[in-house]
Specification:
Oligomer: single chain
Number of strands: 19
Radius of gyration: 24 Å
Structural class: alpha+beta
Mean pLDDT: 97
Number of helices: 9
Order of helices and strands: HHEEEEEHEHEEEEEHEEEHEEHEHEEH
Length: about 375
């Protein structure tokens, strides 16, 4: 069988306009190619979100290597700012251009190509699984979580999992992820009593109270970092009164903060701390403070071991670089997979993801396929 060309497959996927939550033909295309390669494919759509589960080998096999990725992409923005068609998959100067080229249709294509070649050439004693969602860039409520729920109900399981998100900041092979920081956003609304600014004693001004609260939160050092994580951060992302008048003390004002936290904390511990800080301000200023919180994910770590060593060795063999074991960056769907099985992440250089003229190096797509194939070979050796 002729080896699968990961560049051609990436181009075919990029031509699918799969802006979240549209499927755009990407999962249909991928399922067709995987089925031709001997995989059993099942659509696991939920809540209007398209998802694909593909397995080669026996369900319930003693060892199952899993891959998680996504084919949905962020919007293109102003198409006139692009030098190419956003979904044209144009190749020039050694790069393949298009929305999703880096994040992460190339990663999905590289693993699919590696997996098809691997099971065709050297059928392993075990199973290979791809769990691909169409909702990683959106709310992620019915994407990878839907796949994992379906797997639990159907008796499907991965022994380990590799997520194909871009992990290298500048140079191919320089970093892989063994964990991610947790993320939460908190919205604070402070309510006082409206009044005339010439008679402040007749009002309860919520603005100084909010300013004090935000200062208390942003001035506090959450921690100094842990063995595998940098210090946690809290960023104030907005403050607003909605008050256009200079002679009126408003009745309320609001602010929001985003916290990226390491494994020294749970989201609940941080929420409890913010509640205590709000309580101090409530007492000091005689105002009411309401808090609304959205937790995007908890911090997690896959301790260095067999899985990270396997991936690192494959990366070093193909790139000459031993990847740093990193936990930096934002969230990924690994935050869901970590409750199912050990998970690490490795993918391409992510410099242009979500940008105008997003592009991926043709050479790196080939390298990534070779790395993924080495990982599979090593896992089943």
């Amino acid at each position: 069988m002729t080896p699968v060309d990961p560049v051609a497959l990436t181009a075919d996927l990029v031509r699918c306009p799969s802006v979240t939550p549209a499927e755009g033909g990407a999962l249909v295309l991928l399922a067709k190619r995987l089925t031709e390669g001997g995989f059993e494919c099942t659509r696991v759509d939920r809540g209007g979100v398209p998802n694909l589960y593909a397995r080669w080998g026996r369900k319930g096999a003693n060892r199952t290597f899993g891959f998680n990725g996504h084919t949905d992409v962020v919007p293109v923005g102003n198409e006139n700012d692009w030098s190419v068609l956003p979904f044209g998959a144009e190749i020039k100067d050694g790069y393949l251009y298009g929305r999703g080229a880096t994040d992460m249709k190339s990663g999905v294509a590289a693993f699919a190509a590696a997996a098809i070649d691997f099971v065709t050439e050297t059928p392993p004693d075990g199973a290979v699984v791809l769990a691909i969602t169409g909702d990683e860039e959106g709310d992620a409520l019915h994407g990878t979580t839907a796949l994992l729920d379906w797997m639990a109900a159907e008796g499907e399981a991965m022994s380990v999992c590799l997520v194909g998100e871009p992990t290298c900041p500048d140079v191919m092979g320089e970093a892989m992820k063994i964990g991610r920081r947790g993320s939460l956003t908190a919205w604070f609304t402070v309510r006082g009593v409206q009044g005339h600014s010439a008679y402040p004693h007749r009002a309860k001004n919520p603005i100084p109270a909010l300013a004090r609260l935000v200062d208390r939160l942003s001035s506090h050092a959450l921690d100094e970092g842990t063995a595998h994580f940098d210090p946690s951060t809290l960023a104030v992302v907005t403050m607003d009164t909605g008050n256009p008048a200079t002679n009126v003390i408003p009745a309320q004002c609001s602010a929001a903060v985003n916290v990226r936290f390491n494994d020294a904390h749970s989201s609940q511990a941080i929420v409890d701390w913010m509640g205590e800080e709000a309580g101090h301000v409530t007492e000091q200023f005689d105002v009411d403070v309401d808090i609304k919180v959205k937790v995007s994910g908890e911090s997690f770590l896959t301790p260095p071991g067999d899985l990270s060593e396997l991936v690192a060795a494959a990366v070093a063999a193909e790139t000459g670089m031993t990847p740093v074991l990193s936990t930096s960056g934002g969230t990924s769907d690994a935050r869901f997979v970590k409750d199912h099985c050990p998970v690490v992440e490795f993918g391409l250089v992510g410099q242009t993801m979500h940008q105008v003229d997003e592009r991926v190096s043709i050479e790196q797509i080939g390298q990534l396929k070779a790395i993924y194939k080495r990982v599979l070979t090593g896992y089943f050796a």
